[in-house]
Amino acid sequence: MELPYDIKISRRAxxxxxxxxxxxxxxxxxxxxxxxxxxxxxxxxxLSLKVNGETRxxxxxxxxxxxxxxxEHLHLTGTKKGCDHGQCGxxxxxxxxxxxxxxxxxxxxxxxxxxxxxxxxxxxxxxxxLQEAFVRHDGYQCGYCTPxxxxxxxxxxxxxxxxxxxxxxxxxxxRPLLSVDEIRERMSGNICRCGAYSNIVEAITxxxxxxx
Length: 212
What we know:
By secondary structure, the protein is an alpha+beta fold. It folds into two domains: about 45-120, Beta-grasp domain (Ubiquitin-like (UB roll)), CATH 3.10.20.30; about 130-210, DNA polymerase, domain 1. The chain contains seven helices and five strands. Strands 2-1-5-3-4 form a five-stranded mixed beta sheet, sandwiched between helices. A hairpin with a 2-residue loop joins strand 1 (about 45-50) and strand 2. Helix 4 packs across helix 7. The protein is globular.
């Protein structure tokens, strides 16, 4: 199709027009992020979280992950930062009863949530039964992944009790049996670089009452 008139524009002029258009679009966005008082837009907020049974309030940047809030603000360093990309499971915690990777979620998304870290499960003086099982079965070597492994195992056993199937469950309509395959599949998001997987399975099996 031919235009009723010829449009001729140089490459330099085109670049100038593009830059001007981008600048014009950016102005409303900048104005939207700046409060009416003319000051800088607020990037922090007050958080209220129930962590290990205790309500904790703190100021945090809106972009802060839940993992960094636990480690840097609340000093609960049992939750480990491994890959920081949700691939290793070292930062697994229980969030409102469900296991999650704390590095993949922003703290501001969980206002008022109930969070359990490894510190909330047990202590050296009064260990959680799964912690005791890990010790008995040498379910760790360097120990870096162990807090995430144990939190994940606690959440996983609760999923089985609720009848939630996994990818290896033979029947999605019946309550899954806690077989070795089920344990390995359900725990596959937690990596042990030392390779203590067989001992981890033994520890979980013992805690589950020898069902696997």
